[in-house]
Write a structure and sequence with these properties.
With 305 residues, this protein is an alpha/beta fold. The protein folds into two domains: 11-101 and 214-304, 3-Layer(aba) Sandwich (Rossmann fold); 113-212, DNA polymerase, domain 1. Helices cover 42% and strands 14% of the residues. It is built from 13 helices and seven strands. The protein has a seven-stranded mixed β-sheet, sandwiched between helices. Helix 3 (56-65) links the parallel strand 2 (48-53) and strand 3 (73-77). The relative contact order is 0.14. Bound molecules: S-adenosylmethionine. The site of S-adenosylmethionine (SAM) has 23 residues, from helix 2 and strand 2. The site of S-adenosylmethionine has 23 residues, from helix 2 and strand 2.
């Protein structure tokens, strides 16, 4: 086991929904440090797990933390959105369960050098995969006021988006998380500062979503997972903010609704899935008090017909 800590959210519930059985194959699309993966692999003697993560540092921890399971685990550095290609390279045609535990690991959030946190100062990076793409610093230093404002509005639901975007462009270049947080805090009028929420929270969330293309990954990843799922297979998704949860909710609802194929005559096509969580599952008060990161988690699950 490595020293790095990330407490898996709703761990028992994930295992209850997936209900792994011997011989089955599971994909953990956000394997992180391997917390949920450990629980899945421990649930059945002969269960196989493919763990994917964009973050090479997380994967290195997962490799150590999952070493006890030996050849039952395959770890892949990649984007869960490319699940079809990843599985075909492994020669796997279908899977029995797919887990997405979205958001950041505690390791990412608590490492100042990764540039995710407004609580500590570090280079403004925010890439889950630091080997590719543009960093948050590239974004805030190169984008137009309009583009920055759109990102803050769409992905942070930030009412002062334009004001913050203008303030960023006026002081840039911005190199660190501390500088960005200070600009945002100054740009939002004092009387709108909330008591327990840092004014920089929404801006940091928005930039992180944009830098990592998180919503498109989720949308495409759910579709990729459902396509390769065996009949009876389960998808479990844990989201941490309303934009993610909305995507999961609508995706599951669409699958669970009978529908007509364009103008084709005949009866509607039957529902392709059954929703297992009428309302999203939330962590208990006790889990939240032991692991505050669980506070905003919502778990949804569906079963393929
Ligand atoms: C909340 S953590 C997962 C923690 C994990 N369930 C555990 O118990 O240790 C989310 C992880 O998903 C990874 N991630 C986010 N988006 C991804 C994507 N599109 N493809 C692959 N990994 C992704 C992040 O790098 C991060 O390590």
């Amino acid at each position: 086991m490595t020293d790095a800590v990330h407490v898996p959210v709703l761990r028992a519930e994930v295992v209850r929904f997936l209900a792994p059985k011997p011989g089955e194959i599971y994909v953990d699309g956000t394997v992180g440090l391997g917390g949920h993966a450990t629980a899945i692999l421990s649930a059945g003697a002969d269960v196989r797990l493919i763990g994917i993560d964009r973050d090479p540092v997380a994967l290195a921890h997962a490799r150590e933390n999952l070493a006890q399971f030996e050849d039952r685990v395959t770890l892949i550095h990649g984007n869960y959105r490319n699940l079809a290609g990843i599985l075909s390279e492994l020669g796997i045609a279908a899977i029995d369960g797919f887990l997405l535990d979205l958001g950041l690991s505690s390791l990412q959030l608590d490492t100042p050098d990764r540039g995710f946190s407004f609580r500590t100062d570090g280079p403004l990076d925010m890439r889950m995969d630091p080997t590719q793409g543009r960093s948050a610093a590239d974004l805030v230093n190169e984008a137009s006021v309009e583009e920055i404002a759109r990102i803050l509005r769409d992905y942070g639901e930030e009412r002062f988006a334009s004001r913050i975007a203008r303030a960023i462009v006026a002081v840039r270049p911005i190199a660190t998380t501390g500088e960005l947080a200070a600009v945002v805090r100054r740009a939002i009028p004092r009387r709108f500062h909330e008591r327990r929420i840092d004014p920089a929270t929404r801006t940091f969330q928005a930039l992180r979503i944009e830098v990592n293309d998180e919503l498109r990954n989720l949308h495409d990843g759910l579709a990729a997972g459902f396509t390769v799922l065996n009949p009876g297979g389960i998808i479990v998704a844990i989201s941490f903010h309303s934009l993610e949860d909305r995507i999961v909710k609508h995706f599951f609802r669409k699958l669970a609704t009978p529908h007509y194929e364009s103008l084709a005559p005949g009866p509607p096509r039957p529902a392709q899935a059954e929703i297992l969580t009428k309302k999203p599952l939330r962590p208990s008060e006790q889990e939240i008090s032991e692991n505050p990161r669980a506070r905003s988690a919502k778990l949804r699950a569906c079963r393929k017909r």
